[in-house]
Specification:
alpha/beta, Rossmann fold, about 20% strand
Length: about 270
């Protein structure tokens, strides 16, 4: 198995890639052609590749297993999610055992419980966390909005308005958070890319130097700017697609159709 440690291989000191998943490694349930080979190419060259995703719906083990299925070995510490950033943000202001309403997927539940918080399905609660999930319904919206309106701390895992799938996009966590925000009359604190909580989490785990790879300039590009790192844009997800985000003008330092075409550019630049 490829050595995934930072510094493994010749000339690797400080070489880190924070790679998005949705729209970069896969789109919906379909792997993006060449992405696994491109990641392996980086690792063989001595780079550490980690995965930073705003999709809070899955548990860490789910991501590790899904990466393995598409040919990308990874350890749990190689995956950093907006669910973990949200849990870090929430727990900073609450005591252990505080009640939190998770209007989100199992990834958020896992992250909150790992921080010693008690996840409940209804109030009274100390905080409410809204994240991407596909069983969004009116009753859940009511409970989340009631909690936020009643003074509970209100955190959104991220504000991405859409989520790329095979053949298009579907509403993302930002759309769900907007529904709760509108009903509650309050704006949420934001945890995931490009917010400070995610940047602090990445720095604490992976260090102070790297490259951000992603498919969404308003999220991944802004996250790179927040970290002070170069941004590498791939056009296999949201950017450049019909109805998606345009390529910024001026463009970021690296732009390519997909990860397989991006990696040679990154390696050539050293």
């Amino acid at each position: 198995m490829t050595d995934r440690r930072a510094g493994a291989g010749p000339g690797a000191a400080g070489h880190l890639v924070c790679c998005d998943l949705d729209g970069v490694v896969w789109r919906g349930e379909t792997p993006i052609r060449g992405s696994a080979g491109a990641i392996e190419q980086l690792r063989v060259a001595g780079w550490r590749v980690v995965f930073t995703t705003n999709n809070s719906s899955l548990r860490i083990a789910d991501y590790v297993q899904r990466l393995a299925r598409v040919g990308v070995p990874a350890d749990p510490d190689d995956v950093c999610t907006s669910a973990q950033a949200a849990a870090a943000l929430v727990c900073a202001g609450l005591t252990p055992g505080a009640a939190v309403l998770a209007y989100a997927g199992p990834g958020v539940v896992e992250a909150l419980e790992a921080r010693g918080l008690r996840v409940v399905s209804r109030g009274p609660v100390d905080a409410v966390v809204v994240g991407f999930h596909r069983d969004f319904d009116f009753d859940g919206l009511t409970r989340a909005a009631d909690a936020a309106r009643g003074g509970a701390r209100f955190v959104a895992t991220n504000l991405d308005p859409t989520y790329p799938i095979d053949g298009g996009v579907i509403p993302g966590a930002g759309a769900l958070a907007a529904a709760v925000s509108t009903a509650a009359g309050r704006e949420p604190e934001v945890a995931g890319k490009p917010a400070t909580a995610m940047a602090e989490l990445v720095r604490s785990r992976y260090g102070n130097a790297g490259i951000v790879v992603g498919d969404r300039p308003t999220t991944d590009g802004a996250f790179a700017a927040a970290l002070g790192w170069p941004f590498a844009l791939v056009l296999s997800g949201v950017a450049g697609s019909a109805g998606g985000e345009p390529v910024p003008d001026p463009p970021p330092p690296y732009v390519a159709a997909d990860l397989s075409q991006l990696v040679p550019l990154v390696l050539a630049a050293g």
